[in-house]
Write a structure and sequence with these properties.
The protein has two domains: about 5-65, no CATH class; about 70-100, no CATH class. The protein has seven helices and four strands. The protein has helices at about 5-15, 15-25, 25-30, 30-40, 45-50, 55-65, 95-100; strands spanning about 70, 80, 85, 90. The chain has a two-stranded antiparallel sheet. Helix 1 runs antiparallel to helix 2 (about 15-25) and helix 4 (about 30-40) packs across helix 6. The longest helix has 11 residues, at about 5-15. The protein is elongated, with a radius of gyration of 15 Å. The mean pLDDT is about 90. The structure holds zinc ion. Zinc ion binds near residues 78, 92 and 95.
Length: about 100
């Protein structure tokens, strides 16, 4: 797992400013809905991001999920940072995936 912060720090240390610029610009470049899809582990979104080859899915995923607060899932009650808000209620990614398969 390549953590976003670690990679960013390492690149800054090496002075690889092109890559640093790309990583720091992700917030502006990636839309909210794309970010949500990353969080939901939908890696088809990679094709839309036009990410350079050195940017791995792990890296993007760790960027998207960093700093997500943990909330209680309305269905299973577990605390999780991954998931989505549904009509103002939080559903963890596990329950969301399960629900998706039922529909
Ligand atoms: Zn749940």
């Amino acid at each position: 797992m390549q953590a976003y912060k670690t990679v960013l720090m390492e690149l800054k240390r090496k002075g690889d400013l092109e890559k640093v610029k790309w990583l720091e610009g992700m917030n502006k470049r990636i839309t909210k809905s794309q970010k949500q899809r990353i969080i939901e582990n939908d890696n088809e979104v990679m094709q839309e991001l036009f990410a350079p080859k050195w940017v791995s899915w792990d890296l993007i995923y760790s960027w998207a999920t960093e700093g997500l607060e943990k909330k209680n899932c309305v269905l299973c009650g577990k605390k999780d940072s991954l998931g989505m808000d549904f009509k103002g209620k939080f559903m963890c990614s596990g329950c969301f995936i399960e629900l998706k398969h039922k529909i």
